């Protein structure tokens, strides 16, 4: 499954930009930008870009996605794009001093990964694969060139939002990927004393991993990072299942901030 590794930048084309200047600025290559964004016939003349278009630009190394702030951007608009809370975006970006004030050219970590479209893909199939919706994919990629709800082409790179709730976002494992014992479960969480939980259930209802504790690096009201190796208590009985990350109410023990991640075994 072509999940694209690297550091990804979501960049808004500015007046006077060309692909060479963007590639040089962000450490990428013109050919990669053209392919990732459909900047070739029949969609457009080779290399033609227009101010206001949103491009996905990837450089080698790392494994995160950042959006570069353009005029008119706000954390609220980013939250809407990535189906995440404004508080969460602010919490995972400690370099931002004020959630109501971001500056042009600031780099903001966003909860999204990049998927390269394969032969035979449709948006419906991709949405099902990652446990999201076509509407969410289109919203996350709004403003990008050569994107249609009806037709997508191999090589195009789509932004896919990571699963999140108001206070938890899971960055790893990526939805729709195969997990094994010892693989890393990581993300950000805001919880009382940093205490959250995870559980894995297969699609037959077998509890593969009993409810298990995770300790985030910070306790609420701050967002902390978390990273632990996944453990199995039982052998999965199906090839698909669900990873659940959540907290429990201190008052009645009810599940809060549940994040569901579709997984394969």
Task: Characterise this structure.
- The protein has 265 residues and is α+β, with helices and mostly antiparallel strands.
- 17% of the residues lie in helices and 31% in strands.
- The chain has a 4-stranded mixed sheet with strand order 2-1-3-4.
- Strand 12 and strand 13 form a beta hairpin.
- The longest helix is centred in the N-terminal third of the chain and has 8 residues.
- It starts with 6 loop residues before the first strand and ends with a strand.
* CATH hierarchy: architecture of the largest domain: Roll
| pLDDT averaged residue by residue | 97
- Radius of gyration over alpha carbons? 19 Å
Structural class: alpha+beta
Q: What percentage of amino acids are in beta strands?
A: 25-35%
Question: How many helices does DSSP assign?
Answer: 6
The biggest beta sheet reads: 4 strands, mixed
CATH T-level fold name of the largest domain = Membrane-bound Lytic Murein Transglycosylase D, Chain A
Cα distance spanning the termini: 14 Å
By DSSP, the count of extended strands is 13
CATH superfamily of the largest domain: LysM domain
Helices and strands, in N-to-C order? EHHEEHHEEHHEEEEEEEE
Helix content: 10-25%
Question: How many domains, in number, for the residues?
Answer: 2
Low-confidence stretches: none
What topology, given as strand order, has the largest sheet? 2-1-3-4
The level-1 CATH class of the largest domain: Alpha Beta
What is the approximate shape? globular
Protein name: LysM domain-containing protein
Pfam families: Gmad2 (PF10648), LysM (PF01476)
InterPro entries: Gmad2_Ig-like_dom (IPR018911), LysM (IPR018392), LysM_dom_sf (IPR036779)
Organism: Jeotgalibacillus proteolyticus
């Amino acid at each position: 499954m072509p999940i694209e590794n690297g550091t990804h930048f979501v960049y808004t084309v500015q007046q006077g930009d060309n692909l060479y200047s963007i590639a040089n600025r962000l450490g990428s290559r013109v050919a990669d930008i053209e392919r990732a964004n459909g900047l070739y016939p029949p969609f457009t003349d080779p290399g033609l870009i227009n101010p206001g278009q949103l491009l996905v630009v990837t450089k080698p190394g790392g494994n995160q996605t950042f959006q570069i702030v353009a005029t008119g951007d706000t954390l609220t608009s980013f939250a809407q794009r990535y189906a995440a809370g404004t508080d969460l975006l602010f919490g995972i970006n400690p370099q931002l001093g004020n959630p109501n004030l971001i500056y042009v050219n600031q780099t903001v970590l966003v909860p999204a990964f990049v998927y390269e479209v394969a032969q035979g893909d449709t948006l419906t199939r991709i949405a099902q694969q990652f446990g999201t919706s076509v509407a969410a994919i289109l919203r996350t990629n709004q403003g990008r060139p050569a994107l249609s709800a009806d037709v997508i082409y191999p090589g195009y790179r789509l932004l896919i939002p990571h699963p999140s709730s108001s206070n938890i976002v899971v960055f790893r494992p990526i939805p729709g990927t195969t997990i094994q014992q010892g693989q890393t479960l990581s993300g950000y969480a805001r919880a009382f004393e940093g205490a959250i939980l995870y559980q894995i259930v297969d699609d037959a209802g077998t509890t593969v991993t009993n409810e298990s504790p995770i300790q985030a690096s910070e306790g609420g009201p701050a967002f902390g990072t978390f990273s632990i190796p996944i453990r199995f208590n039982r052998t999965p009985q199906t090839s698909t299942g669900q990873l659940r990350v959540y907290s429990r109410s201190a008052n009645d023990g009810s599940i809060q901030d549940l994040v569901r991640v579709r997984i394969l075994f």
